[in-house]
Amino acid sequence: MDDISNDMTAGKASRELARLSLVYAKHPAYDVDIFIAGKEGASDLELLRASGITTVVNCAVNLDFNFVAEPKLVSDHRNSVHGPGEIRYYKVGLIDGDGNPDTQMLAAHYILKAALEQVLPDKPSYPRRERGGILVNCRGGRSRSVVVVSLFLHLTLPSEFPTLDAAIAFVRGKRGLPEDEWYKAPKPVLAAAAQRAATWARAIETGET
Hints:
Layout: E1 21-24, E2 34-37, H1 39-42, H2 45-50, E3 53-60, E4 73-74, E5 81-82, E6 88-94, H3 104-117, E7 133-137, H4 144-156, H5 164-175, H6 188-206
Parallel strand pairs: 2-7, 3-6, 3-7
Antiparallel strand pairs: 1-2, 4-5
Helix pairs in contact: 3-4, 3-6, 4-5, 4-6
């Protein structure tokens, strides 16, 4: 699939990232592919389906998607609809910089983890039970999504990514981020929040409080 790449899209500006990047194939604990994208890739339902993606975790507070192709009910508010989406959709809502509560990065890790572990009931009101790849996105696919996926890889695959910095370096490479953007991809304040979140997560998992 030409739209999926870990490199820059051929013939485009050097700073324009692939619309969809496969970051980690077949996570051993979940047997799923993990992708990162910005708004262009995350909003392309055909691309998500072609890539086997069934779940989206949106890290951006300033970006929303409507994956409801066949709304069951239109509310009294113009353009506001609801119904089961074509994709299972989770929202974290991080700010790309200062302003996030100190525990929100920890919540982001557990939302991503829950999106992979949640088992939906076999009921008509839960029609999207398919289990496939997962996409983590933010507006540009450079900062918020990169740090959240890095934190997740560091915590779930500690032998492969013993430090958060190692995970960030790996994700940067898979996303194709140019070296002169590393100082802001991810933002330092988000990387620091992820480092604190990693410490808290390990304490939670070991029962050390």
